[in-house]
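Design request, tokens follow.
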């Protein structure tokens, strides 16, 4: 048996990660193309209204104005171009989430009931993936510091949720509020973090996209660590 050299193992691991990223990018591109085709067949004014977004029409065509984490985005039709102030480009993942939200939204009122991902219909199937990608990184980063968790939540634009040892509420979209809750734990219980959604969330995004949204939110949250307050 020939043993693998460390260099070859590292190259193989790097190649594997690269292949996974390419496959992920390909999947997002396919999802984007399908969403574009689907949305072109819809009543854009109705879609915007169901999602709590704004619709405008002028000589250049139609456009939907929508806010994502308080940042304004404009989607122009029929070309389906994305614009946001201060951004040279809008990422493919963000574009997919925006279009899927517009396609999924059905205007269901918010319930005011917070639920964990596993309690969303069908969510138990992906609960392990959600935990690995969304909440476990936050436990590692903030599990022993509710104070830091709260400080970064303020930087993120969150408002105090008033539960746990620290918590804050955000709006991903106008009809998708989310709540982060941290418990520092003690001698008997380890620290934990939950990301909660209004129980109507599956009326506004598919289950897979809720995982992506959670992962994106967690990534942004962690990236704010160490930055000075604005």
């Amino acid at each position: 048996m020939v043993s693998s050299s460390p260099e070859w193992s590292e190259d193989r691991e790097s190649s594997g990660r690269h292949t996974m990223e390419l496959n992920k990018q390909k999947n997002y591109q396919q999802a984007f193309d399908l969403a574009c085709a689907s949305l072109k067949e819809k009543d854009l004014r109705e879609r915007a209204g169901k999602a709590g977004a704004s619709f405008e029409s002028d000589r250049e065509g139609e456009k939907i104005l929508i806010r994502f984490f308080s940042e304004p985005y404009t989607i122009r039709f029929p070309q389906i171009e994305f614009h946001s102030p201060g951004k040279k480009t809008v990422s493919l993942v963000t574009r997919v989430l925006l279009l899927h939200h517009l396609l999924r939204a059905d205007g269901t009122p918010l319930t005011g009931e917070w639920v964990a991902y596993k309690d969303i219909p069908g969510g138990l199937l992906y609960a392990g993936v959600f935990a690995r990608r969304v909440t476990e990184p936050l436990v590692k980063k903030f599990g022993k510091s509710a104070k830091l968790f709260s400080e970064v939540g303020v930087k993120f634009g969150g408002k105090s949720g008033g539960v746990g040892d620290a918590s804050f509420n955000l709006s991903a979209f106008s009809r998708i509020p989310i709540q982060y809750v941290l418990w520092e734990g003690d001698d008997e219980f380890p620290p934990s973090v939950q990301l909660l959604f209004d129980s109507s969330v599956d009326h506004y995004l598919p289950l897979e996209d809720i995982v992506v949204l959670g992962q994106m939110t967690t990534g942004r949250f962690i990236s704010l660590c160490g930055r000075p307050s604005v």
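Comment from the thread starter after seeing the answer: thanks! Residues 12-104 form one domain.
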